[in-house]
Design brief:
Elements: E1 24-29, H1 35-45, E2 53-59, E3 64-70, H2 73-76, H3 79-82, E4 89-95, E5 110-113, E6 119-128, H4 131-141, H5 150-158, H6 166-173, E7 179-186, E8 191-195, E9 204-208, E10 211-215, H7 218-223, E11 227-231, E12 236-241, E13 244-249, E14 257-258, H8 260-265, E15 271-272, E16 275-276, H9 277-291, E17 298-301, H10 307-317, E18 325-327, H11 340-344, H12 347-350, E19 351-353, H13 355-358, E20 362-367, H14 374-385, E21 390-395, H15 417-420, H16 423-430, E22 434-437, H17 440-447, E23 454-455, H18 457-460, E24 505-508
Parallel strand pairs: 14-23, 17-20, 20-21, 21-22
Antiparallel strand pairs: 1-4, 1-10, 2-3, 2-4, 3-24, 5-6, 6-7, 7-8, 8-12, 9-10, 9-11, 12-13, 15-16, 18-19
Helix pairs in contact: 4-5, 9-10, 9-17
Length: 509
């Protein structure tokens, strides 16, 4: 089954999905606060990072309950499902799958019980590149090896140290992991957070009046009224409990933050390495105008991630900014797939040109990226049919020529249009009068980060984390493992002392 991602500037054509969002993770330790509501609004703020599934785990110190399902946060949770989720700490997750099929079993958080009765729940943003080795290690240790995602493998490994604390187990497991990860996890009394040595995916620490928060983005901290303390450092493990905050290092840091967070993934109101994403995107637009000027009457964005760059382009070029498309704000995830005939028209379900705005105009159309080119071709066609006389497409990222193996689900290298065609070939394919991409130097400068601290592999092919032989990575890393899809059937932790809740919940006492 195919799933729409709810974003309005991509996945307009099911044959041309954009780089899909990394997942969102959120964790709270806050006695005497309404944990499930804090988790709900934190996840709601991170919805853009994953739309396949949502879930949360909550502990009251005596039992841990997980509730998760396929769907958006507001589809999975309501007052009736949140009411039983009471306690003093919890974690949550919004998922887009990069490893493991989009099934209920692979929704997060994952839940695992040790032989001594400790319960571990874990949520993950990123993608591990050595899951075959980790799966073999699980089998060697005799722990559950039926996992179908890298997240459940890590949870199983953490449970394989029954004579040690979860914190001690984590300091032994985390150095064994290769790839990109930002984890939030928990036992019955302690909240943990960890980030890989390169810090590829974002993770920040926040403070509540009576507790602590860990989140993929600062925007979610703002949503629940938490203040930003700092980023979780690459190679750092945090532990939060009644004794306060503890920090330990499991690896030497070598920062390689994902540059695509600035282009597309992060919310505009989030802060990455001290710079708001919105201001970085506006600056990208300014540099795009300097590098690829055009004679035009109006600059228009492809909603929504193209808006800040279009503002910057308009400011730098002196060309007026305007809205050329209207979007249907109520189009999100759908389980009803259109026929082939309707699919060809499906882009207009989400975006439609404002004819009176574009008729007779020379337009600069700003978008964040081009994957296969089908979406841009459809947009250009619609604008011409609406009466635009010239269309100059400007892209606020360099040509994407390599897939990502660290938590973003790009198309394969062979499917990436920039790997197969030169600039003019892409221009002809999408039907634009001119085409310009921001340079990699311009993009790096807009982030205000040193080039040495950024992962730009999707643009330059330089992968900072070693890849397995033959590129055995991505969604099929766990090739041959079970990919069940029993939506609505509860998953039971080993040695469960309490009958598993009906429906989609799990409880471990």
């Amino acid at each position: 089954m195919a799933y729409g991602d709810g974003r309005l500037n991509h996945d307009l054509d099911t044959t041309d999905s954009a780089p899909q969002d990394a997942c969102g993770v959120f964790g709270v330790w806050a006695p005497n606060d309404d944990i499930s509501k804090l988790l709900y609004f934190g996840l709601y703020a991170l919805q853009h990072r994953g739309q396949e599934a949502a879930g949360m785990a909550v502990s009251d110190g005596g039992s841990t309950t997980v509730y998760k399902d396929l769907g958006l946060v507001a589809q999975v949770f309501d007052e009736s499902t949140l009411a039983p989720l009471t306690g003093h700490l919890g974690i949550g997750h919004t998922r887009y799958s990069t490893t493991g099929a989009p099934t209920w079993e692979n929704a997060q958080p994952t839940l695992q019980a040790t032989s001594t009765g400790t319960t571990i729940a874990l949520a993950h943003n990123g993608n591990l590149t050595n899951t075959n080795a980790l799966s073999a290690q699980c089998r060697k240790l005799g722990v559950d090896s039926t996992a179908t995602s890298d997240t459940s493998l890590v949870t199983a490994l953490l449970s394989s140290y029954p004579d040690e604390s979860v914190e001690s187990a984590a300091l032994q497991v985390l150095p064994q992991l290769e790839g990109a990860f930002s984890f939030v996890f928990m036992d019955d009394n302690t909240l943990y957070a960890a980030r890989d040595a390169h810090g590829v995916r974002p993770l920040v620490l926040g403070r509540l009046d009576r507790g602590w928060v860990v989140s993929s983005e600062t925007a979610a901290l703002d949503t629940i009224g938490a203040s930003v303390v700092r980023e979780v450092e690459p190679g750092e493990l945090l532990a939060i409990d009644e004794h306060g905050l503890r920090s330990a290092r499991f690896a030497n840091q070598s920062p390689k933050n994902c540059i695509f967070e600035y282009v597309y993934l992060a919310r505009p109101d989030s802060v990455l390495s001290g710079r708001t994403v919105h201001s970085a995107r506006v600056e990208i637009g300014r540099r795009l105008a300097q590098e690829h000027p055009a004679e035009a009457d109006m600059v228009i964005p492809v909603p929504e991630s193209g808006v800040p760059a279009a503002i910057g382009y308009a400011q730098e070029s002196g060309i007026g900014f305007g809205l050329g498309f209207t979007k249907n704000s109520y189009v999100g995830r759908t389980f009803i797939q259109p026929s082939q005939t309707l699919r060809q028209l499906g882009i207009q379900l989400k975006l439609n040109p404002l004819r009176e705005q574009v008729r007779g105009k020379r337009l600069v159309v700003v978008d964040d990226s081009i994957v296969r080119g089908n979406t841009q071709r459809a947009l250009v066609r619609m604008l011409r049919e609406a009466g635009a006389v010239e269309i100059h497409v400007r892209i606020s990222s360099p040509p994407t020529k390599w897939p990502c193996f660290y938590g973003i689900d790009f198309a394969t290298k062979a499917e990436l249009i920039a790997d197969n065609l030169d600039l003019d070939g892409i221009r002809r394919t999408i039907g634009a009068d001119s085409l310009g991409y921001v340079s990699l130097d311009g993009l790096v400068q807009a982030t205000e980060q040193p080039r040495s601290r950024l992962c730009m592999a999707c643009f330059d092919g330089d992968y900072p984390i070693t890849l397995p032989p033959n590129d055995v990575i991505g969604k099929h890393l766990l090739e041959g493992l079970d990919r069940r899809a029993d939506v609505g059937v509860a998953e039971t932790a080993p040695d469960n002392k309490e009958e598993t809740l009906r429906g989609r919940a799990q409880r471990r006492t």
